[in-house]
Write a structure and sequence with these properties.
The complex is a heterodimer of chains A (about 350) and B (about 120).
Chain A: E1 3-8, H1 12-22, E2 29-34, H2 37-46, E3 51-55, H3 63-73, E4 79-83, H4 88-97, E5 101-104, H5 109-122, E6 127-132, H6 134-143, E7 148-154, E8 160-166, E9 169-175, E10 178-179, H7 180-188, E11 193-198, H8 212-235, H9 241-255, H10 262-273, E12 279-284, H11 289-301, E13 307-313, E14 319-323, E15 329-333, H12 339-347
Parallel strand pairs in A: 1-2, 1-3, 3-4, 4-5
Antiparallel strand pairs in A: 6-11, 7-8, 7-11, 8-9, 9-10, 12-15, 13-14, 14-15
Helix pairs in contact in A: 2-3, 7-8, 9-10
Chain B: H1 6-9, E1 14-20, E2 26-31, H2 45-50, E3 56-61, E4 65-70, E5 75-80, H3 86-96
Antiparallel strand pairs in B: 1-2, 1-5, 3-4, 4-5
The chains are: A alpha/beta (about 350), B alpha+beta (about 120).
Protein backbone atom coordinates (compact mmCIF):
# COMPACT_ATOMS: atom_id res chain seq x y z
CA UNK A 1 0.00 0.00 0.00
CA UNK A 2 1.49 3.32 -1.12
CA UNK A 3 1.56 5.91 1.64
CA UNK A 4 1.18 9.65 1.16
CA UNK A 5 3.65 12.26 2.32
CA UNK A 6 2.57 15.89 2.56
CA UNK A 7 5.27 18.45 1.71
CA UNK A 8 4.61 21.96 2.99
CA UNK A 9 6.60 24.98 1.83
CA UNK A 10 5.72 28.46 0.62
CA UNK A 11 8.50 28.36 -1.95
CA UNK A 12 6.88 26.91 -5.03
CA UNK A 13 10.17 26.11 -6.74
CA UNK A 14 11.41 24.22 -3.70
CA UNK A 15 8.19 22.20 -3.56
CA UNK A 16 8.28 21.25 -7.22
CA UNK A 17 11.94 20.41 -7.04
CA UNK A 18 11.36 18.15 -4.05
CA UNK A 19 8.40 16.50 -5.71
CA UNK A 20 10.45 15.78 -8.80
CA UNK A 21 13.35 14.46 -6.76
CA UNK A 22 11.11 12.16 -4.77
CA UNK A 23 9.37 10.69 -7.81
CA UNK A 24 11.88 7.88 -7.97
CA UNK A 25 10.45 6.64 -4.66
CA UNK A 26 6.92 6.48 -6.06
CA UNK A 27 6.75 2.75 -5.34
CA UNK A 28 7.21 3.52 -1.63
CA UNK A 29 5.29 6.76 -1.11
CA UNK A 30 3.42 9.39 -3.07
CA UNK A 31 3.72 13.13 -2.54
CA UNK A 32 1.10 15.77 -1.85
CA UNK A 33 1.93 19.48 -1.84
CA UNK A 34 0.74 22.37 0.32
CA UNK A 35 1.84 26.00 0.11
CA UNK A 36 1.51 26.83 3.84
CA UNK A 37 0.15 25.62 7.15
CA UNK A 38 -3.47 26.42 6.39
CA UNK A 39 -3.31 24.72 3.04
CA UNK A 40 -1.70 21.73 4.74
CA UNK A 41 -4.56 21.42 7.24
CA UNK A 42 -7.03 21.41 4.35
CA UNK A 43 -5.04 18.69 2.60
CA UNK A 44 -4.94 16.67 5.81
CA UNK A 45 -8.72 16.84 6.06
CA UNK A 46 -9.19 15.66 2.51
CA UNK A 47 -6.48 13.02 2.15
CA UNK A 48 -5.09 10.11 4.14
CA UNK A 49 -1.58 11.31 4.95
CA UNK A 50 1.11 9.22 6.62
CA UNK A 51 3.80 11.84 7.16
CA UNK A 52 4.23 15.62 6.98
CA UNK A 53 7.43 17.39 5.95
CA UNK A 54 7.19 21.13 6.57
CA UNK A 55 9.21 24.26 6.39
CA UNK A 56 9.11 26.46 9.48
CA UNK A 57 8.87 29.95 8.08
CA UNK A 58 5.73 30.41 6.02
CA UNK A 59 3.05 33.10 5.65
CA UNK A 60 -0.51 32.67 7.05
CA UNK A 61 0.35 29.64 9.20
CA UNK A 62 3.95 28.80 10.03
CA UNK A 63 5.47 25.37 10.60
CA UNK A 64 5.28 25.53 14.40
CA UNK A 65 1.55 26.25 14.36
CA UNK A 66 0.99 23.49 11.82
CA UNK A 67 3.04 21.11 13.96
CA UNK A 68 0.92 21.95 17.00
CA UNK A 69 -2.30 21.31 15.03
CA UNK A 70 -1.00 17.99 13.74
CA UNK A 71 0.05 16.85 17.22
CA UNK A 72 -3.44 17.60 18.56
CA UNK A 73 -5.64 16.50 15.66
CA UNK A 74 -3.49 13.85 13.98
CA UNK A 75 -1.21 12.50 16.69
CA UNK A 76 -0.42 9.43 14.61
CA UNK A 77 1.15 11.49 11.81
CA UNK A 78 4.86 12.24 12.33
CA UNK A 79 6.27 15.59 11.23
CA UNK A 80 9.75 16.30 9.90
CA UNK A 81 10.83 19.94 10.03
CA UNK A 82 12.90 21.65 7.35
CA UNK A 83 14.98 24.51 8.70
CA UNK A 84 16.98 27.08 6.80
CA UNK A 85 19.40 27.37 9.69
CA UNK A 86 19.81 24.83 12.39
CA UNK A 87 19.23 27.26 15.19
CA UNK A 88 19.41 25.13 18.35
CA UNK A 89 16.51 26.88 20.06
CA UNK A 90 14.22 26.34 17.04
CA UNK A 91 15.20 22.71 16.75
CA UNK A 92 14.66 22.27 20.47
CA UNK A 93 11.24 23.91 20.24
CA UNK A 94 10.23 21.77 17.27
CA UNK A 95 11.18 18.59 19.10
CA UNK A 96 9.44 19.78 22.24
CA UNK A 97 6.21 20.34 20.31
CA UNK A 98 6.51 16.84 18.92
CA UNK A 99 8.42 16.88 15.64
CA UNK A 100 9.96 13.56 14.70
CA UNK A 101 13.13 15.26 13.52
CA UNK A 102 14.54 18.01 11.36
CA UNK A 103 16.58 18.37 8.23
CA UNK A 104 18.69 21.41 7.50
CA UNK A 105 18.74 23.28 4.21
CA UNK A 106 20.47 22.72 1.90
CA UNK A 107 20.00 18.96 1.85
CA UNK A 108 20.15 16.13 -0.65
CA UNK A 109 16.76 14.84 -1.75
CA UNK A 110 18.05 11.33 -1.13
CA UNK A 111 18.73 12.18 2.50
CA UNK A 112 15.17 13.43 2.95
CA UNK A 113 13.83 10.35 1.15
CA UNK A 114 15.74 8.06 3.52
CA UNK A 115 14.36 9.94 6.53
CA UNK A 116 10.84 9.61 5.12
CA UNK A 117 11.24 5.90 4.36
CA UNK A 118 12.63 5.23 7.85
CA UNK A 119 9.72 7.07 9.46
CA UNK A 120 7.16 5.21 7.33
CA UNK A 121 8.82 1.91 8.13
CA UNK A 122 8.52 2.68 11.84
CA UNK A 123 4.77 2.93 11.39
CA UNK A 124 4.63 -0.81 10.86
CA UNK A 125 7.54 -1.92 13.02
CA UNK A 126 5.21 -4.25 14.89
CA UNK A 127 4.12 -6.00 11.69
CA UNK A 128 1.41 -5.91 9.07
CA UNK A 129 -1.64 -8.08 8.52
CA UNK A 130 -3.11 -8.05 5.05
CA UNK A 131 -6.44 -9.66 5.73
CA UNK A 132 -7.86 -9.48 9.19
CA UNK A 133 -10.99 -8.98 11.16
CA UNK A 134 -10.40 -5.83 13.19
CA UNK A 135 -12.50 -7.11 16.11
CA UNK A 136 -10.50 -10.27 16.54
CA UNK A 137 -7.17 -8.52 16.27
CA UNK A 138 -8.05 -5.76 18.70
CA UNK A 139 -9.11 -8.26 21.30
CA UNK A 140 -5.63 -9.72 21.04
CA UNK A 141 -4.16 -6.27 21.57
CA UNK A 142 -6.29 -5.87 24.67
CA UNK A 143 -5.39 -9.31 25.95
CA UNK A 144 -1.68 -8.70 25.53
CA UNK A 145 -1.90 -5.21 27.08
CA UNK A 146 -0.02 -3.73 24.18
CA UNK A 147 0.93 -0.11 23.77
CA UNK A 148 0.73 0.69 20.09
CA UNK A 149 -0.74 2.70 17.26
CA UNK A 150 -2.72 0.67 14.76
CA UNK A 151 -3.39 1.95 11.28
CA UNK A 152 -6.20 0.22 9.40
CA UNK A 153 -7.34 0.31 5.79
CA UNK A 154 -10.85 -0.88 4.98
CA UNK A 155 -10.28 -3.19 2.02
CA UNK A 156 -13.71 -2.61 0.52
CA UNK A 157 -13.86 1.20 0.75
CA UNK A 158 -10.18 2.15 0.96
CA UNK A 159 -10.90 4.35 4.01
CA UNK A 160 -8.16 4.61 6.60
CA UNK A 161 -8.41 4.83 10.35
CA UNK A 162 -6.13 4.87 13.36
CA UNK A 163 -6.53 3.37 16.84
CA UNK A 164 -4.40 4.28 19.85
CA UNK A 165 -3.78 1.69 22.55
CA UNK A 166 -1.91 2.04 25.83
CA UNK A 167 -1.45 -1.08 27.96
CA UNK A 168 -4.23 -2.73 25.99
CA UNK A 169 -6.69 0.09 26.64
CA UNK A 170 -8.23 1.83 23.66
CA UNK A 171 -7.51 5.51 24.27
CA UNK A 172 -8.62 7.14 21.07
CA UNK A 173 -9.44 6.64 17.41
CA UNK A 174 -9.25 8.78 14.31
CA UNK A 175 -10.76 8.54 10.88
CA UNK A 176 -10.43 11.59 8.64
CA UNK A 177 -11.42 14.49 10.90
CA UNK A 178 -13.48 12.31 13.24
CA UNK A 179 -12.08 11.43 16.68
CA UNK A 180 -13.01 9.45 19.78
CA UNK A 181 -15.83 6.98 20.14
CA UNK A 182 -17.57 7.91 16.90
CA UNK A 183 -14.38 7.15 14.99
CA UNK A 184 -13.87 3.89 16.92
CA UNK A 185 -17.42 2.74 16.11
CA UNK A 186 -16.82 3.38 12.43
CA UNK A 187 -13.45 1.63 12.32
CA UNK A 188 -14.53 -1.36 14.40
CA UNK A 189 -17.44 -2.05 12.06
CA UNK A 190 -15.01 -2.87 9.22
CA UNK A 191 -14.98 -6.56 8.38
CA UNK A 192 -11.88 -7.00 6.29
CA UNK A 193 -8.91 -4.74 6.86
CA UNK A 194 -5.23 -4.32 6.23
CA UNK A 195 -3.63 -3.24 9.44
CA UNK A 196 -0.18 -2.25 10.54
CA UNK A 197 1.01 -1.89 14.06
CA UNK A 198 3.51 0.59 15.43
CA UNK A 199 4.96 -0.30 18.80
CA UNK A 200 4.44 3.10 20.35
CA UNK A 201 1.56 5.42 21.08
CA UNK A 202 1.82 9.19 21.06
CA UNK A 203 -1.66 9.58 22.53
CA UNK A 204 -1.75 9.81 26.32
CA UNK A 205 -5.24 11.00 27.14
CA UNK A 206 -8.16 8.54 27.14
CA UNK A 207 -10.85 9.98 24.90
CA UNK A 208 -13.01 6.90 24.64
CA UNK A 209 -15.21 5.77 27.50
CA UNK A 210 -15.96 2.11 28.08
CA UNK A 211 -13.97 -0.99 27.38
CA UNK A 212 -13.19 -2.54 24.02
CA UNK A 213 -15.85 -5.27 24.32
CA UNK A 214 -18.58 -2.68 24.80
CA UNK A 215 -17.32 -0.60 21.89
CA UNK A 216 -17.12 -3.65 19.64
CA UNK A 217 -20.69 -4.56 20.48
CA UNK A 218 -21.85 -1.01 19.89
CA UNK A 219 -20.02 -0.94 16.54
CA UNK A 220 -21.78 -4.14 15.49
CA UNK A 221 -25.12 -2.81 16.59
CA UNK A 222 -24.63 0.41 14.62
CA UNK A 223 -23.50 -1.58 11.60
CA UNK A 224 -26.64 -3.71 11.72
CA UNK A 225 -28.81 -0.65 12.24
CA UNK A 226 -27.20 1.13 9.31
CA UNK A 227 -27.74 -1.90 7.09
CA UNK A 228 -31.37 -2.18 8.17
CA UNK A 229 -31.96 1.53 7.66
CA UNK A 230 -30.39 1.43 4.22
CA UNK A 231 -32.48 -1.51 3.22
CA UNK A 232 -35.68 -0.01 4.59
CA UNK A 233 -34.94 3.20 2.73
CA UNK A 234 -34.37 1.48 -0.56
CA UNK A 235 -37.50 -0.59 -0.28
CA UNK A 236 -39.67 2.10 1.27
CA UNK A 237 -40.33 -0.07 4.31
CA UNK A 238 -40.48 1.13 7.89
CA UNK A 239 -38.67 -0.28 10.92
CA UNK A 240 -41.80 -1.90 12.31
CA UNK A 241 -41.97 -4.13 9.30
CA UNK A 242 -39.12 -6.24 10.66
CA UNK A 243 -41.71 -7.75 12.96
CA UNK A 244 -43.99 -8.23 9.99
CA UNK A 245 -41.19 -10.10 8.24
CA UNK A 246 -40.81 -12.38 11.25
CA UNK A 247 -44.55 -13.00 11.30
CA UNK A 248 -44.58 -13.96 7.65
CA UNK A 249 -41.63 -16.26 8.21
CA UNK A 250 -43.25 -17.88 11.22
CA UNK A 251 -46.45 -18.38 9.26
CA UNK A 252 -44.36 -19.85 6.51
CA UNK A 253 -42.67 -22.25 8.90
CA UNK A 254 -45.99 -23.43 10.25
CA UNK A 255 -47.64 -23.84 6.90
CA UNK A 256 -44.83 -25.27 4.83
CA UNK A 257 -46.35 -28.73 4.89
CA UNK A 258 -49.66 -27.58 3.48
CA UNK A 259 -48.43 -25.10 0.93
CA UNK A 260 -50.08 -25.73 -2.39
CA UNK A 261 -48.02 -23.04 -4.16
CA UNK A 262 -44.55 -23.14 -2.66
CA UNK A 263 -43.28 -20.51 -5.07
CA UNK A 264 -45.76 -17.85 -3.97
CA UNK A 265 -44.69 -18.23 -0.34
CA UNK A 266 -41.08 -18.35 -1.39
CA UNK A 267 -41.54 -15.05 -3.17
CA UNK A 268 -43.09 -13.55 -0.06
CA UNK A 269 -40.13 -14.71 1.99
CA UNK A 270 -37.67 -13.35 -0.53
CA UNK A 271 -39.55 -10.09 -0.52
CA UNK A 272 -39.15 -9.74 3.21
CA UNK A 273 -35.54 -10.83 3.53
CA UNK A 274 -34.52 -9.85 0.02
CA UNK A 275 -31.41 -10.50 -2.01
CA UNK A 276 -29.91 -7.28 -0.71
CA UNK A 277 -29.36 -9.13 2.53
CA UNK A 278 -27.34 -11.79 0.77
CA UNK A 279 -30.03 -14.44 0.38
CA UNK A 280 -29.20 -16.41 -2.74
CA UNK A 281 -31.91 -19.02 -2.81
CA UNK A 282 -34.70 -20.61 -0.81
CA UNK A 283 -35.65 -24.20 -1.47
CA UNK A 284 -36.57 -27.48 0.15
CA UNK A 285 -33.96 -30.21 0.44
CA UNK A 286 -34.40 -33.44 2.35
CA UNK A 287 -30.66 -34.18 2.33
CA UNK A 288 -30.40 -31.99 5.44
CA UNK A 289 -33.10 -33.93 7.29
CA UNK A 290 -30.54 -36.16 9.06
CA UNK A 291 -28.70 -33.22 10.56
CA UNK A 292 -31.96 -31.53 11.57
CA UNK A 293 -33.15 -34.74 13.19
CA UNK A 294 -29.94 -35.14 15.23
CA UNK A 295 -29.98 -31.51 16.29
CA UNK A 296 -33.60 -31.79 17.38
CA UNK A 297 -32.74 -34.87 19.46
CA UNK A 298 -29.91 -33.04 21.19
CA UNK A 299 -32.31 -30.16 21.86
CA UNK A 300 -34.77 -32.57 23.43
CA UNK A 301 -32.03 -34.09 25.59
CA UNK A 302 -31.01 -30.63 26.81
CA UNK A 303 -34.63 -29.55 27.30
CA UNK A 304 -33.97 -26.67 24.89
CA UNK A 305 -37.49 -26.45 23.47
CA UNK A 306 -38.51 -26.42 19.83
CA UNK A 307 -35.74 -26.15 17.23
CA UNK A 308 -36.22 -22.91 15.34
CA UNK A 309 -33.31 -22.98 12.91
CA UNK A 310 -29.78 -24.13 12.24
CA UNK A 311 -27.14 -21.93 10.71
CA UNK A 312 -24.44 -24.01 9.01
CA UNK A 313 -21.08 -22.92 7.65
CA UNK A 314 -19.22 -25.66 5.80
CA UNK A 315 -16.30 -23.45 4.82
CA UNK A 316 -17.58 -23.17 1.26
CA UNK A 317 -18.68 -20.11 -0.69
CA UNK A 318 -22.24 -20.39 0.60
CA UNK A 319 -23.61 -20.72 4.10
CA UNK A 320 -27.03 -22.17 4.92
CA UNK A 321 -29.90 -21.55 7.26
CA UNK A 322 -32.04 -24.64 7.75
CA UNK A 323 -35.65 -24.39 8.85
CA UNK A 324 -37.13 -27.62 10.21
CA UNK A 325 -40.40 -28.92 8.74
CA UNK A 326 -41.74 -31.98 7.00
CA UNK A 327 -38.97 -31.31 4.54
CA UNK A 328 -36.09 -29.08 5.54
CA UNK A 329 -36.29 -25.61 4.05
CA UNK A 330 -32.87 -24.28 3.07
CA UNK A 331 -31.91 -20.63 2.72
CA UNK A 332 -28.53 -20.27 1.04
CA UNK A 333 -26.51 -17.17 1.82
CA UNK A 334 -23.63 -15.50 0.07
CA UNK A 335 -20.52 -14.41 2.04
CA UNK A 336 -21.75 -10.82 2.33
CA UNK A 337 -25.07 -11.79 3.88
CA UNK A 338 -26.11 -10.17 7.13
CA UNK A 339 -26.23 -13.56 8.80
CA UNK A 340 -26.76 -12.27 12.31
CA UNK A 341 -29.73 -10.18 11.31
CA UNK A 342 -31.35 -12.92 9.25
CA UNK A 343 -30.93 -15.44 12.07
CA UNK A 344 -32.38 -12.96 14.53
CA UNK A 345 -35.43 -12.30 12.36
CA UNK A 346 -35.99 -15.98 11.70
CA UNK A 347 -35.54 -16.85 15.37
CA UNK A 348 -38.25 -14.52 16.61
CA UNK B 1 -7.22 -26.75 29.33
CA UNK B 2 -10.20 -25.32 31.22
CA UNK B 3 -8.42 -21.98 31.61
CA UNK B 4 -8.44 -21.59 27.84
CA UNK B 5 -12.21 -21.34 27.92
CA UNK B 6 -12.51 -18.84 30.76
CA UNK B 7 -13.14 -15.89 28.46
CA UNK B 8 -16.09 -17.67 26.91
CA UNK B 9 -17.41 -19.09 30.16
CA UNK B 10 -17.35 -15.66 31.79
CA UNK B 11 -19.49 -14.09 29.10
CA UNK B 12 -23.00 -13.08 29.99
CA UNK B 13 -25.57 -15.62 28.85
CA UNK B 14 -23.08 -18.44 28.35
CA UNK B 15 -24.14 -21.51 30.32
CA UNK B 16 -21.20 -23.74 29.55
CA UNK B 17 -19.08 -25.50 26.99
CA UNK B 18 -18.30 -29.02 25.98
CA UNK B 19 -15.73 -30.47 23.63
CA UNK B 20 -16.66 -33.55 21.62
CA UNK B 21 -14.08 -35.58 19.78
CA UNK B 22 -14.73 -36.45 16.15
CA UNK B 23 -15.63 -39.93 17.37
CA UNK B 24 -18.26 -38.59 19.73
CA UNK B 25 -16.31 -38.82 22.98
CA UNK B 26 -16.99 -36.11 25.53
CA UNK B 27 -13.50 -34.68 26.08
CA UNK B 28 -14.35 -31.78 28.33
CA UNK B 29 -17.33 -30.04 29.89
CA UNK B 30 -17.67 -26.93 32.01
CA UNK B 31 -21.04 -25.68 33.17
CA UNK B 32 -22.17 -23.16 35.76
CA UNK B 33 -24.55 -24.05 37.23
CA UNK B 34 -24.44 -27.74 36.51
CA UNK B 35 -26.83 -29.04 33.88
CA UNK B 36 -29.79 -31.12 35.08
CA UNK B 37 -28.70 -33.88 32.70
CA UNK B 38 -25.57 -35.99 32.61
CA UNK B 39 -23.84 -35.31 29.32
CA UNK B 40 -21.84 -38.51 29.71
CA UNK B 41 -25.07 -40.49 29.56
CA UNK B 42 -25.64 -39.60 25.95
CA UNK B 43 -24.08 -41.27 22.94
CA UNK B 44 -22.88 -38.26 20.98
CA UNK B 45 -21.63 -40.30 18.02
CA UNK B 46 -24.67 -39.81 15.73
CA UNK B 47 -24.69 -36.09 16.43
CA UNK B 48 -21.00 -35.73 15.64
CA UNK B 49 -21.41 -37.83 12.50
CA UNK B 50 -24.27 -35.59 11.36
CA UNK B 51 -21.98 -32.59 11.79
CA UNK B 52 -19.40 -34.00 9.37
CA UNK B 53 -18.00 -31.19 7.22
CA UNK B 54 -19.53 -28.44 9.34
CA UNK B 55 -17.04 -25.75 10.30
CA UNK B 56 -19.42 -23.59 12.28
CA UNK B 57 -23.05 -23.94 13.33
CA UNK B 58 -25.52 -21.91 15.31
CA UNK B 59 -28.47 -23.95 16.53
CA UNK B 60 -31.33 -21.84 17.81
CA UNK B 61 -33.98 -23.44 20.01
CA UNK B 62 -36.85 -21.87 21.91
CA UNK B 63 -34.95 -21.80 25.23
CA UNK B 64 -31.35 -22.43 24.34
CA UNK B 65 -28.75 -21.75 21.71
CA UNK B 66 -25.82 -23.95 20.75
CA UNK B 67 -22.85 -22.45 18.96
CA UNK B 68 -20.56 -25.08 17.45
CA UNK B 69 -17.06 -24.73 16.04
CA UNK B 70 -14.90 -27.30 14.36
CA UNK B 71 -11.45 -27.36 16.00
CA UNK B 72 -8.35 -29.51 15.52
CA UNK B 73 -9.41 -31.52 18.58
CA UNK B 74 -13.09 -31.90 17.82
CA UNK B 75 -16.30 -29.93 18.02
CA UNK B 76 -16.46 -27.16 20.57
CA UNK B 77 -20.07 -26.65 21.66
CA UNK B 78 -21.02 -23.48 23.55
CA UNK B 79 -24.38 -23.61 25.30
CA UNK B 80 -25.96 -20.25 25.89
CA UNK B 81 -29.14 -18.33 26.35
CA UNK B 82 -31.01 -17.44 23.18
CA UNK B 83 -30.09 -13.77 23.48
CA UNK B 84 -26.42 -14.26 24.41
CA UNK B 85 -23.92 -12.08 22.48
CA UNK B 86 -23.18 -14.58 19.72
CA UNK B 87 -20.82 -12.23 17.87
CA UNK B 88 -18.58 -11.99 20.91
CA UNK B 89 -18.72 -15.73 21.47
CA UNK B 90 -17.65 -16.17 17.86
CA UNK B 91 -14.76 -13.74 18.28
CA UNK B 92 -13.57 -15.49 21.42
CA UNK B 93 -13.70 -18.81 19.61
CA UNK B 94 -11.63 -17.30 16.79
CA UNK B 95 -9.02 -16.44 19.38
CA UNK B 96 -8.89 -19.67 21.33
CA UNK B 97 -9.39 -22.30 18.66
CA UNK B 98 -5.86 -22.08 17.25
CA UNK B 99 -4.60 -22.73 20.78
CA UNK B 100 -6.55 -25.95 21.21
CA UNK B 101 -4.22 -28.88 20.99
CA UNK B 102 -1.12 -26.73 21.13
CA UNK B 103 1.22 -27.10 24.05
CA UNK B 104 2.49 -23.56 23.89
CA UNK B 105 -0.38 -21.09 23.93
CA UNK B 106 1.70 -18.06 24.88
CA UNK B 107 2.91 -16.97 21.46
CA UNK B 108 0.18 -14.35 21.23
CA UNK B 109 0.50 -11.69 18.59
CA UNK B 110 3.86 -12.88 17.33
CA UNK B 111 2.24 -15.72 15.45
CA UNK B 112 0.22 -13.24 13.42
CA UNK B 113 2.96 -11.11 12.03
CA UNK B 114 5.49 -11.35 9.33
CA UNK B 115 9.00 -10.64 10.38
CA UNK B 116 10.23 -7.17 9.55
CA UNK B 117 12.39 -7.22 6.41
Amino acid sequence: MIKSVLLVDDEQEMLLSLKEGLEKYADVFSVLLAKDGEDALEKLKQNPVSLVVTDLKMPRMDGFTLLTHVMVDYPDIPVIIITAHSIPIMVKMAKKVGALGYIEKPFMVEDLAQRIIAALRDQSDGGTLHSASSGLFLQLIEMERKTCTIRLVNKSSGRRGVLFFRDGILLDARIDGLRGEAAANEILSWDDVILSIQNECSQKEKKIEGDLQAILLEAMRLKDEAAEGKDAATTGREDGETQEAATVINQYEEKTAEIPGFNSVKKKLEGKIGDRRGVEDIYQDSSWDGLISQVAEVGEFLDAGRLKLCYVNEGESKDFILLPGDRTTVISLNPDALKGWIIEVLSR
Amino acid sequence: MKKLFDDILNMKGVKGIMLLSFKGKLLLKEFTPLLPVLLEDRDWTPFVKALAGVQEADLVFENLRLYIRNSPTGYLVVLMEVLAPIAMVRLNCDILLPSLGQEDTSKGLKRLFKRKQ
